[in-house]
């Protein structure tokens, strides 16, 4: 597949790695050898862009104490080891920036109740906050964010963006989906405010758009900024595709370069579950692409890699973010190529 150029960054192909949390950082939030091997293998395996997992913009913005972070220079320096290896294998290093909001201070997925298990302050957790004092499932009731919290979140994203540049990332993605802080402000399911940050769509977009503008200003003009956007909450009273379209148009005006289109996560799966079907987000990505003119990539399962080529050729998407299939096979992209063994690393060609 042909390369894709976004600003001055050229991505060698349209098969990209989706950000998937590993919950394997050290207590300091820095990448470990696990991350180097995990991401390095996929870069070696021919993926065009490696989107490093949701990385917290501040200690209170983590989902768990094992999250990656990028809120200080020491973390940025540790990330540079990772980005250098990824770039050295020919892939573009990118990072997803996260503020968790009310979906914060919970257990890692394989312990206790996992992401539904709150970690209280007395047990090593931290105070959570969100747009309103409305909990997510069984997690702690968040404190309603004040103006100082909102302003701090904007600055935290800007600081993390500057550090991401220093760390060698060639693209950053703002996580505004899956029920995390920016999605919480967008969705009436979590946002019950009556001030300038709640009520109308214009008000609910205020914080995410402030973050988008701050991130765009903080990142070099030659590098692209993505946003993971929610197309629908899959439940009455939540975000609709019409609201997502209005938000996407505002993101385009703010200088965002690509929409990473997903859905769901505002409430627990038992209340509203995203349909488990191949290409579930392709129609939404197509809609947002036509409405904004931005590059788009749908999240979620794709039946086989040939479908990605068809989507790109048909103008419905510009790339595909591959998730669990790359967890199963880090060399998925190489296996899917029709050319000869020269696509593989020379160290492995004796096996072909």
TrEMBL record:
Q: Which Gene3D superfamilies match?
A: Aldolase class I (3.20.20.70)
Q: Which InterPro entries match?
A: Aldolase_TIM (IPR013785), OxRdtase_FMN_N (IPR001155), YqjM-like (IPR044152)
Q: Which cofactor does it need?
A: FMN
**GO molecular function terms here?**
FMN binding; NADP binding; NADPH dehydrogenase activity
The domain of life for this entry's organism is Bacteria
Alphabetical UniProt keywords: Flavoprotein, FMN, NADP, Oxidoreductase
Instruction: Point out the signal peptide segment.
Output: none
List the top taxonomic levels of the source: Bacteria, Bacillati, Actinomycetota, Actinomycetes, Kitasatosporales
Q: Does the keyword NADP apply?
A: yes
Name of the protein in question: Oxidoreductase
Domain (NADH:flavin oxidoreductase/NADH oxidase N-terminal) ranges: 2-333
Q: Write down the species.
A: Streptomyces chrestomyceticus JCM 4735
Keyword Lyase in the entry? The reply is no
SUPFAM superfamilies cross-referenced by the UniProt entry: FMN-linked oxidoreductases
